[in-house]
Amino acid sequence: MKIRPQDYPVIIIVVYVIFLLLGFLLGFLPGRGEGGHGRGMLNQPVPMWEAPA
After folding, report:
1. Using an 8 Å Cβ cutoff, are 3 and 11 in contact?
2. Cβ contacts of residue 43 below 8 Å, gap of 6+?
3. What are phi and psi of 50, to 5 degrees?
4. Residue 23: what pLDDT?
5. pTM confidence score
6. CA distance 46 to 43
7. Cβ-count burial 6-43 (b if 16+ within 10 Å, e if not)
8. Which of 7, 32, 45, 53 has its CA 20 to 30 Å from the CA of residue 13?
9. pLDDT of residue 44
10. C-alpha pair distances (Å), 23 with each of 7, 19, 20, 30
11. Distance (Å, rounded) from C-alpha 8 to C-alpha 52?
């Protein structure tokens, strides 16, 4: 079965929505009040051997 080129946008949107819902179901929800993008690494715990003296 060949996929028609005019169906590509629909396929892309459907796959995006499926992966988005799968991510939400697995617990990858956007954080509330965390200040937006790029802040995840700043709040990570640092092991004692990597902490500055």
Report:
1. yes
2. 34
3. -105, -10
4. 86
5. 0.51
6. 9
7. eeeeeeeeeeeeeeeeeeeeeeeeeeeeeeeeeeeeee
8. 32
9. 58
10. 24, 6, 5, 10
11. 51
Task: Show the tokens assigned to 14.
Answer: 């459907």
19/30 Cα distance (integer angstroms): 15
Residue type, 12: I
Secondary structure (DSSP) of the chain? -PPPGGGHHHHHHHHHHHHHHHHHHTT-PPPSSS-STT-TGGGS---TTTS--
For residues 3 and 46, the model is more confident at 3
**Residue for token digits 């802040």?**
39
